[in-house]
Amino acid sequence: MRFRAKIVDIGCLNHFTRVISTIAKLAKTCTLRLTVEKLYFILSDKVANGGVSMWCELNQGNVFDEYQMEGVAVESNEIYLELTPENLSRALKAAQNAKAVKIKLTNKQCPCLTVVMELPSLSSSSRIVTHDIPVGVIPRKLWNDFKEPTVPDFDVSIYLPVVKTMKSVVERMKNLSNSIVIEANQNGEMNLKIETDLVSVTTHFKELGNPPWESEDGSQGSARDRDSESMAEARIDIKRLLQLLAGQQVNPTKALCNIVSKRIVHFILLHEDVSLQYFIPALA
């Protein structure tokens, strides 16, 4: 089992750092899945038990100048690691002026992701700084616990307003309640609502648009058949929502959410080569 990668391009390094910073704000620990083509960051708390889950993927070819990996076996050429993303985020932030950054899987009393930074110095020779980030190697028999989540059979799918705008609205609302109701319809309308014994506050968004979804037979479909004016809603933990909105270091070019009434809200954020899915279960 081997993994070794190198980043030279400063733009790619900054982009990768922003992705890892976003992951670090969403998960204390996560699973890093390495394949030949992609990197995946997975948080698989059981939604049925009230936990959030996350699935983020990016193409390694758009980040690394060199990339080599050999999995545990020929028939399963993948590596699964348990990782504290904040540790990797700190290491990468220290590398912002680096000439090159190497990341490799090592064994130093325990398995580690070793980040080696070549930093410029006043002398002719470069300074080399090394960070060893402990990781856990997840055995093959547990890999099925980290499968890509399926898109839920949603009632409404809608594009989100500008993430920064939505974040500022939710930040003000969090002082009023621990939960927030998201409701939307197939007519491009979304409402964010706070309802308590003392106060009721609603922010309305219109003309957001509804993404087309392709059905299994290849035809253009949408959410479940329902009146376009009819609202689907779910009450969710407001801190979970703010965590997602506030954690965005990579400004998504496209953001949408799918609502399964009174069950789950599924967010999808897309930015060039990165896609992030985030599932927040509804409160009872």
TrEMBL record:
Record has DNA damage as a keyword: yes
UniProt-annotated location(s): Cytoplasm, Cytosol; Nucleus
Region Disordered, residue ranges: 208-229
InterPro entries: DNA_clamp_sf, HUS1, HUS1/Mec3
Presence of keyword Nucleus: yes
GO cellular component, one term: checkpoint clamp complex
Keywords for this protein: Cytoplasm, DNA damage, Nucleus
GO process annotations (BP): double-strand break repair via homologous recombination; meiotic DNA integrity checkpoint signaling; mitotic DNA replication checkpoint signaling; mitotic intra-S DNA damage checkpoint signaling; nucleotide-excision repair; response to radiation; telomere maintenance
One Pfam family matching this protein: Hus1
Subunit structure, interactors included: Component of the toroidal 9-1-1 (RAD9-RAD1-HUS1) complex, composed of RAD9A, RAD1 and HUS1. The 9-1-1 complex associates with LIG1, POLB, FEN1, RAD17, HDAC1, RPA1 and RPA2. The 9-1-1 complex associates with the RAD17-RFC complex. HUS1 interacts with POLB, HDAC1, FEN1, PCNA and RAD9B. HUS1 does not interact with RAD17. Interacts with DNAJC7.
Function, as annotated: Component of the 9-1-1 cell-cycle checkpoint response complex that plays a major role in DNA repair. The 9-1-1 complex is recruited to DNA lesion upon damage by the RAD17-replication factor C (RFC) clamp loader complex. Acts then as a sliding clamp platform on DNA for several proteins involved in long-patch base excision repair (LP-BER).
Family note: Belongs to the HUS1 family.
Protein known as: Checkpoint protein
